[in-house]
Amino acid sequence: MQENPPSPMVMRYFLILFLISILLVGRLLWPFLSILILSYLLTSVFRPIYNLLNRKLPDFFASLLTCTLVVLLVFIPLVFFVFALAQEAQNLYEWGRGAGANLGLKLRAFQESPLFVRLQETAALLGFSLEPDNISRTLAELARVVGLFLYNQASSWAANIMMFVFSFFLMILTIFFLLIEHDRLLNYILRLSPLPDDQERRLFAKFDEITGAVLIGNGICALIQGVLGGVIFVVFSLGPPVLWGSIMAVLAFLPIFGIGLILVPAALFLGFKGGLVEAFILLTLYGIITITIEYFLKPKLVGSRVKMHTLLVFLSIIGGLSAFGFLGIIYGPLIITAFLTLAEIYQSSYDRYVKNVNFH
Question: Phi and psi for 29 in degrees, rounded to 5?
Fold first, then answer.
C-alpha cells in the first residue's frame, strides 16, 4: 500500500520545527565546536590504529587502547610544552624590556664590520637609514610584543589547567565513541542529508584526505623542522629553543617562506656579531633541512592528497590563523577544501540546471 505524501502545509510546518531543533542543538554544541572538530580529525588520524587493534580485540578495548595512545602522544607532551613555552616567553618579554641599550652597544661594536657597512650602503640606496640605535629599538620592541603575546597565551592555558584537562578529557571521550560509532554516525548523517550519497561521501573523503595531509604530512614535517630549529638555537646560543622552535613549527606550515623567516635573520644576526663562519653553517643547515623535508619527506607523506595551489594554501593558513587562532592552521585548509569540493560537485551536477533556469 502506497503512503500518501504529506500536504504542503504539513511539510512546511515539520521542516520549520526540524530547522528550529537543529538551531537549538547547534546552540547547545557551539561551546564545544572546536573540541568536536579536533576529535573528528584525530579520530580520522588514529582510526587505522583502531582498525588494526580491532582485528584482535573487541571494540571497547581497541578504542580504549587507541585513546591511551592519543593521551601519550598528544596530551602529555602538550602539557610540558605549554609550561616550557610560558617560561621562555616570559624571559623573552623581560629581555625585550631591558635589551634596547645593551643591544645598541653590541651593534655599535659591529658597525665597522664589512657586512654591516655593505648593508648600510644597500639600505641607503633604498631610501632608509640602518643605524644601530634604530635596529636595537625595533628588535627590543618586537621581542617585548612577541614575548608578551606568547606568554599571555601560554600562561592562560597553564592557569586554566583544570579547564584544559576537562576539554582534553571531553575530547578523548568523544574520540572513544567516534572510533566505535564512526561508520554508524556517517551513515546516519548521509541518510539525513538530501544530497546524493556519492556527493556526500566525496565530501567526507576530501575531509579525510586533507586531515591526513595537514595533521600527518605537514604536521610531522612541521614538528621535525621545529625540533631541528630549536636544536640549532641551542647549538648557536641564539635564544630560548622551545619558544623559537615552536614559532618555526608554525611557520613550517607556510609554503615558500617556512622556517626561513627565522633562520635567515638568525644567520644575519650571527654575521653582525662577526661569526661569518657560523652564519654560513646556519644557512647551509637551513638549506639542507628545507630540501630534505620539503622536497623529499613531505611529498612522500602528503603525496597527491592536497591538490591546491601554493598561493591558496598560503592564504588559507594565514586567513585561518587570523580568524581562528592557532587552530586556523587546520581550519583554513579544511574550509578551502570544502569550497573546492562543493565547487567541483556544482560544476559536474548542478551547473547546467542553474544556467537553464528561466526567471520570469
Answer: -90, -10
Amino acid at 271: G
Please give the average pLDDT of every successive group of 10 residues along the chain, which has 360 residues: 73 90 92 86 87 91 93 79 67 56 52 59 61 57 60 57 78 92 86 82 79 74 88 84 82 78 82 78 89 78 63 81 78 84 84 66
SS3 6: coil
User: What angle (nearest 5°) sits at the alpha carbon of residue 239, between those of residues 139 and 118?
Assistant: 50
- Of 341, 33, 7, 41, nearest to 198 by C-alpha is 341
311's grid cell: 598561493
CB crowding 277-302: b at 16 or more within 10 Å, else e: ebbebbbebbeebbeebbeeebeebb
212: left (phi over 0), alpha (psi -120 to 50) or beta: alpha
Separation between Cα atoms, residue 47 and residue 283, nearest integer Å: 40
Q: How far is CA 192 from the centre of its chain?
A: 31
Cα 118 from Cα 110, distance rounded (Å): 12
CB 180 within 8 A of CB 63: yes
Torsion angle of alpha carbons 291, 297, 303, 307, nearest 10°?
-40
**E-strand spans in the chain?**
none
Fill in the amino acid letter for 277. V
Cβ of 309: how many Cβ atoms within 10 Å? 10
Sign of CA dihedral 122, 128, 131, 133: negative
Q: What are phi and psi of 194, to 5 degrees?
A: -80, -10
Q: How far apart are CA 167 and CA 160, in angstroms?
A: 11
What length does the chain have?
Answer: 360
Contact 152, 123 (CB under 8 A): no
